[in-house]
Design brief:
Strand order of the largest sheet: 1-2-6-3-7-15
CATH superfamily of the largest domain: Zn peptidases
Mean pLDDT: 96
Oligomer: single chain
Largest sheet: 6 strands, mixed
CATH architecture of the largest domain: 3-Layer(aba) Sandwich
Helix content: 25-40%
Number of strands: 16
């Protein structure tokens, strides 16, 4: 019988270790796009796990979106088999980070520790989570080397740009399917007292409106594509946005505003080409382009979500003289939600209560993460997100993760893995 308190003490004794591993991972500026430094970061992680008895493989996602010889999409998967049969628990974390951007008061890749916090791009989202998972697993194997089943840890590419060069690529090759894997925990920063069961759906699309070019002094001889797009935006404001705001979900999405359907206009371009800094030519725009980002609920169907936009455009085509458009799908994922009664959700929730002495909160993420590929491609339903870090800090300047949160989350992940491997979480 393995003493859970002994495991917690072992992890607490590795406080300096989890700090140094987090800092070392942050110092790899794995910025995506374009996808810098993936191989170096993956091998740093793989070398450590190989020294601790894991079988390590590196997979380049050749042919995936974004993979080039200049920016290859490298992933690392490490596996340690126990002495007898049992379930496999997999900890998956993405090694890519978004651009640092402006507004930092510290070097975003120096990984400074200040007043109990580790600052840096990716500290919260999610290199701190990877470090906590690694240290948790190492501590567990130190006190219980003969556990049944297997433990896997992966560091994967491209989550910030859809995950197609990372988890999706690996899932297509069986890395996230039974019988290889039974349970997956993704250390995304959803706050250390929350177990994330899944995410809303997403549909990205490009909308183009068309007109006819003419001299800017005689716009009546042309037909402005920008004005046509303005009519679309007006219809969004008066018709579509109020309709979406009225839709509410039973999914426990956080924050509360995301429990409604949402639509964001990501960008809009029309007329003069971007990047020209001289005086513009006097032209009526013959084309205008908009990118929309629609997030939808588990109660909604994807075809209905698309029809809401297309029906509005078709009405404008009937009622507005000269209105022509093209709508192109870019990306789509249906909502995903693991039942709270699933073994992995129960195991993590039980561990949260053991460590933090309060019940875990079950939540759903407003945005997608790599669970979408594990569900959609791997057909593996037993997956949750749990990790250190405050959700609101992700992608912000002066992003940080608290050292206390790293240790607490590592204890939770270690106890959850112990419960799943021994059957105590059933």
């Amino acid at each position: 019988m393995i003493d859970p308190d002994a495991l917690r003490r072992r992890i607490a004794g590795k406080r300096d270790d989890v700090v140094e591993l987090t800092r070392s991972l942050i110092r790899f500026p794995t910025v995506n796009p374009p996808g810098e430094g993936y191989e170096e970061c993956a091998r740093h992680l793989g070398d450590r796990l190989a020294r601790r008895g894991f079988e390590v493989v590196y997979e380049r996602a050749e042919g995936a979106v974004g993979d080039t010889d200049r920016h290859p999409r490298w992933n690392v998967v490490a596996r340690r088999e126990g002495p007898r049969a049992g379930p496999t628990v997999h900890f998956n974390g993405h090694i890519d980070v978004v651009a640092a951007g402006s507004g930092w008061t510290v070097d975003p890749f120096a990984a400074e520790e200040i007043d109990g916090r580790i600052y840096g791009r990716g500290s919260c989202d999610m290199k701190g989570g990877i470090a906590a998972a690694v240290v948790a697993v190492e501590a567990l194997l130190e006190i219980a080397p003969d556990l049944p089943g297997a433990i896997e840890i992966s560091g994967t590419a491209d989550e910030e740009s859809g995950g197609y060069g990372g988890v999706a690529y690996l899932a297509e090759r069986g890395y996230f399917s039974r019988p290889r894997v039974d349970h997956v925990i993704i250390p995304e920063p959803l706050n250390k007292d929350r177990v994330c069961l899944g995410h809303r759906g997403v549909w990205w699309a490009e909308l183009e409106t068309f007109g006819r070019q003419a001299h800017g002094s005689m716009p009546f001889l042309g037909d402005s594509a920008i004005r046509h797009m303005g009519a679309v935006l007006a219809a969004f404001e008066t018709e579509l946005f109020p309709r979406l705001a009225a839709k509410r979900t039973d999914m426990p999405v956080v924050p509360d505003g995301a429990r409604a359907s949402t639509l964001n206009v990501n960008s809009i371009h029309g007329g003069e080409a971007e990047g020209y800094d001289g005086l513009p030519a006097p032209l009526v725009a013959d084309a205008c382009r908009l990118i929309l980002d629609r997030r939808f609920l588990i109660e909604e169907r994807l075809d209905t979500v698309k029809a809401e936009v297309r029906d509005l455009l078709e009405r404008l085509a009937r009622e507005r003289e000269g209105f022509r458009y093209r709508l192109t799908d870019l990306f789509e994922v249906v909502p995903s939600m693991t039942p709270a009664e699933d073994p992995v959700a129960r195991a993590v929730a039980r561990a949260v209560e053991q460590v933090l002495t309060r019940p875990a909160e079950f939540v759903v993420s407003p945005g997608t993460y790599d669970q979408k590929h594990i569900d959609r491609i791997g057909r593996l339903p037993s997956c949750v997100a749990y990790g250190p870090g405050i959700l609101d800090l992700a992608h912000q300047p002066d992003e940080y993760v608290a050292v206390d949160d790293l240790v607490d989350a590592a204890q939770v992940m270690g106890l959850a893995a112990l419960g799943l491997l021994t059957g105590a979480a059933a």
